[in-house]
Amino acid sequence: MGDPEKIGKYEVRGRLGEGATSTVWRAWDPFAQREVAVKVISPEVLQDRERGRLYRHLLVNEASLAGKLVHPHIVQIFDAVVDAAQSYIVMEYVSGGTLEPFCTPDNLLPLDRLVEIVFKCTRALDYAYHLGITHRDIKPANILLAASDNLGGDIKISDFGAALFTSGEQTRTQVSGVGSPAYMSPQQVREMPLNHQTDIYSLGVVMYQLLTGRLPFQASNNFSMVYQITHVEPPPPSDFRRDIPANLDAVVARAMQKDLSARYASWEEFSHDLAQAFRNKQLKARERDFADTEKYETLRGLPFFAEFSDVEIWEIVRFSDWDQVAPDTVVMKDGEPGDYFCFLAEGEVRIAKRGRILGILTPGDCFGEMAVISKTSGGRNADVVAQTSAKIITIRGDALRQASEVCRMHFYAAFLEVLANRLALANARLASV
Description:
This protein is α+β, with helices and mostly antiparallel strands and 433 residues long. The protein is 34% helix and 20% strand.
């Protein structure tokens, strides 16, 4: 039997992969004018007496997420059809393959890239958690690379079919028999009630495998695997790879704690420790490189961005420019035009006019925004010069104008807050004269 020409309205372009229960096709959506991936469930699977009900539950689970999980690091589900004739799910097409090839000792990722991938996973799963969704099947096969270049680009978490929902009026029935035993938490293999900490454990196993090229527990059968997951402590990753620093050993160990009270209690804690590990000089390839992990953590920590969602922060990571400047570097020059504004992330800069210092800016301060806000602004009205070595975040006016509407609105609201504070400060100074 040949490949189908169409699946519903979707024009089939080729086969992407085949599993025990489904086939995934690359297809074209003529209405939305985009490539998509269509996962077609085998009809005999859903009709199977013993497992049919389970697979139908997983299918409905995933189909119910259409349009709900909208995050840069989660595969988006566009459409779903569940009926007797044909059942399929239409998803965002992700071209780079899975993380599975990077789980062997001879093809390991650089540490900085690996930490960035895991960090992005923690933020995406935290987003899902806040929508009341626990994935329950985190493994390298369900983490996709947005492009085949493994040294850059983004990741996308896929396959929420096994997800546990707690956002409705009642928790949806927990189904056993889903997930991959090697990545399951002690609570999951014992079929205990689960929360987001089961995903934290599973991502810890993925991180272990990406670091070392081997699973933390080696077993020839499921019984042995379950025993080790519940009773045995794995050797630290650095036993298998000498360049792994102690702080990454510690992150993996805490994520994989058997006892829930010792494991990371939240995704924020996991993310924070990964970001701290990234600051370790052993992980930085070049001093002036800024990883997405560092950019995200820096923006998230600035008061200006307090009201921005995670999705908007990742959007800003994409369109902002970052630079480390030496003392006495002129960042902006009096009288010059410039359709951009900046944030000071680290260090100090001075504002000066004809050599006279008007003020000193410290981390978190925003400057140069009037050139972007005001249509009549003729140019800069002061020099901005680095007082110390400084980390500068630059946002171009055209990038802001092309940002999503909600992101732009948050910028303008935050600008109002900045201007109001400056006005209040100016009034206080006048009152004291």
